[in-house]
Amino acid sequence: MNSAPTTARQLGLLNCHDCHLLSKAPAGEEHEHLACPRCGAPLHTRKPNSLTRTTALVLAATIFYIPANLLPMTITSSLGTTQADTIMSGVIYFIQSGSWELALVIFIASIFVPMAKLLILTYLLLSVRFRSLWRPKDRTTLYRLTEMVGRWSMLDVYVVTILVALVKLGAVATIDAGPAAVFFAAVVVITMIAAESFDPRLIWDVIEEET
What pLDDT is stored for residue 59 in this prediction? Predict the structure, then answer.
């Protein structure tokens, strides 16, 4: 039977979270007071308060996600009439107008991806808290995927910004950003910070402690 591989923590090695330099921790010295010799950032064996911080950020993003989808994303004024559109009503409009491709892109980037990120981060937090041993490689892959695609959720905000800048025809037509834009941007930014706050090495710590 093969023995478990030796980990960096067991060898007293610390990875800098900023420049990723691997440093040897001096024997007998508290890790909380160590600094990276290259960039000066504090060194830790694991990200401090990772679970608590990520949980708080995920809860905040979940709260903001509700008004981001219920409130208007754009407010269009044309010839004396005003129309407010949410993200979903915008998707429906593009479907009805025959622009399936654009509707699909907006749905995936603005509705599916933020919801998937929240669900995946919640699952990862619960799996670590309940000390799950189930498929750690797959859970790590889920985390990497979540971290990678997070910024692309800003697509809807970019579209609104471009429309507001371009469609300014005075009394004929104007498009203004609705209140949902602020909440949606907050969801994207908070989930990105939450993904950065989560330490995927915690998934493997449970495996090592149980074996």
Answer: 97
